Amino acid sequence: MSISGELFDQAEHLLTGYGKPGGPDQTDMRRAISNAYYALFHAMVDDAVDVLCPRTPGALARHFRRAFVHTNMKTVCKQFSGRRVAGLSDTMKSSFTDPIESQITVLAGLFVQLQAQRQLADYDTLESLAVSKIAYDVQTAKSAWTSWCNMPSSNNKTAFLVSLLMEKHWKRD
To answer: Considering only CA atoms, which of 29, 33, 40 is closest in space to residue 3?
Structure first.
């Protein structure tokens, strides 16, 4: 099983409360949302590395994975709020065709949402989290990832994955 699959499974396990009276506590829910975010992050990076990096030498992929930056990926994902190329930055427009597949826009939107929730869970410890909301978000993220995995290859899918690493560099003259 991939690290992403294990993180999704662990997020679901944390939400069961694993026998605790009263179910999961705030720490369990905070870890669950963090795990869901990192599951998406690693899954997206793994797919992008598969597109961008040759399989040999093997160590090269490890170095490629380290090149992905959370904030840059969020910047890219924010541009996919609509299903139209017109919503993308000028540097990205030429790499995509309309309509942008819903699997891309949904995954991108969830990445942005989960990153914000992870930051809230990690840094705003006075915020009380609701297990029903966290469980819904974990399941939504897992379902979106399954939908992405079942999406056929397309130019837009490839361009999206490449843009996660390269969009910032495309802005250079």
So the answer is: 40
Helix (H, G, I), strand (E, B) or coil at 61: helix
CB of 8 closer than 8 Å to CB of 113:
no
| Encoded tokens for 100 | 């942008």
Q: What is the pTM of this model?
A: 0.91
Which amino acid does the sequence have at 30? R
Name the amino acid, one letter, at 134.
I
User: Does the structure show a pLDDT above 70 at 139?
Assistant: yes
Q: Which residues of 122-149 are buried (b: 16+ CB within 10 A; e: fewer)?
A: eeeeeeebebeebbebbeebbebbeebe
Q: Give just the sign of the alpha carbon dihedral 115, 166, 156, 64.
A: negative
- Name which of 55, 57, 60, 111 is nearest 81 in CA terms: 111
Q: pLDDT, tens digit, for every residue of 73-90?
A: 999 999 887 777 777 778
Two tokens, residue 11: 């997020």
Query: pLDDT for 96-121, tens place per residue?
Result: 888 899 999 999 999 999 999 999 99
Rounded CA separation 64/45 (Å): 9
Helix axis angle, 131-150 relative to 26-52, nearest 10°? 10
